[in-house]
Write a structure and sequence with these properties.
Structural class: alpha/beta
Strand order of the largest sheet: 3-2-1-4-5-6-7
CATH architecture of the largest domain: 3-Layer(aba) Sandwich
Largest sheet: 7 strands, parallel
Order of helices and strands: EHEHEHEHEHEHHHHE
CATH superfamily of the largest domain: NAD(P)-binding Rossmann-like Domain
Number of domains: 2
Distance between the termini: 66 Å
CATH class of the largest domain: Alpha Beta
Number of helices: 9
Length: about 280
């Protein structure tokens, strides 16, 4: 049986890294991309190859730049020798409320979090259809695509756009036997306490007990892990999910079901729905 092959963007850490490991454990050869963390990406490559005995290729790509995604796709497919699964994961979360929104942030997020996803999807769809590969494309979106929070008009709006876009794309690709789905994470702990403690800049932004406190307020009583998202991706790409396409699978431990505010103050009380106090114009 021929080894399956997958591309995962943004896989040097966090959710993308978890996806790469789970796909490798399932027997996939993988190609992963990173932007700035070369050492972390190479460490992922070495561990995957050592632990699972599959091939792992690493590529540096600034995916918001014109043509970068197509170039990455072509190089990765050439190294892999084929493609069965495209996972669009690379992205950045930036919050700006409407009063502070800049064109720079708008253009950046559209290019990286939406446009590149569609272009990589186009390349994968063309490749699979031409070769009659009944493959899969999976995008990592967000529960913010379904539930609004202050300050995430751009980010949440783009994720909502992807949730809608795949419904049409699924219809385009269905005659070729190609499936497309999204996985929408909720609050996923992508840094360990040790990583936060050893990174002074990160420690300023994220207290070590942040994920524990947030997890206590989620219906399933914990924050999510990259493995939670990764296993959903592996399942959606498998024959066990062969009748599912055009669907967004939310993996959030029930976080958005009650519609709770995300933020709490130092006493544990809800701050309400705003990230900042109203501006005094």
């Amino acid at each position: 049986m021929e080894t399956k092959k997958a591309i995962i963007t943004g896989a040097s850490r966090g959710i993308g890294k978890g996806i790469a490991f789970s796909l490798a454990a399932a027997g996939y050869d993988v190609a992963i991309s990173y932007h700035s963390k070369a050492e972390e990406a190479v460490a992922v490559q070495k561990e995957i190859e050592r632990k699972y005995g599959v091939r792992c290729f690493v590529f540096c790509a600034k995916l918001e730049d014109p043509g970068a995604g197509v170039k990455l796709f072509e190089e990765a497919v050439q190294k892999l020798g084929g493609l069965d699964l495209m996972v669009n994961n690379a992205g950045v979360t930036v919050f700006e409320n409407i009063f502070d929104m800049t064109e720079e942030t708008l253009d950046f997020l559209i290019s990286l979090d939406f446009k590149n996803y569609l272009l990589m999807t186009r390349e994968a769809a063309r490749y699979m259809a031409k070769r009659r590969i009944k493959g899969n494309i999976i995008n990592i979106t967000s529960s913010r695509g379904e539930r609004a929070y202050p300050g995430d008009a751009i980010y949440g709006g783009l994720k909502a756009g992807l949730n809608r876009a795949i419904q049409s794309i699924a219809l385009d690709m269905a005659p070729y036997g190609i499936r497309i789905n999204n996985v929408a994470p909720g609050a996923i702990c992508i840094r360990t306490k040790e990583e936060i403690e050893n990174d002074p800049e990160l420690n300023k932004k994220v207290p070590m007990d942040f994920w524990d406190k947030l997890g206590n307020r989620i219906p399933m009583q914990r924050s999510g892990t990259p493995a939670d998202i990764a296993e959903a991706v592996v399942w959606l790409a498998s024959e066990k999910a062969s009748y599912i396409t055009g669907t967004t699978l939310r993996v959030d431990g029930g976080l958005i079901l009650p519609g709770m505010p995300e933020l709490i103050d130092e006493t544990g009380a809800d701050k309400g729905w705003g990230y900042t106090q109203p501006k005094d114009f």
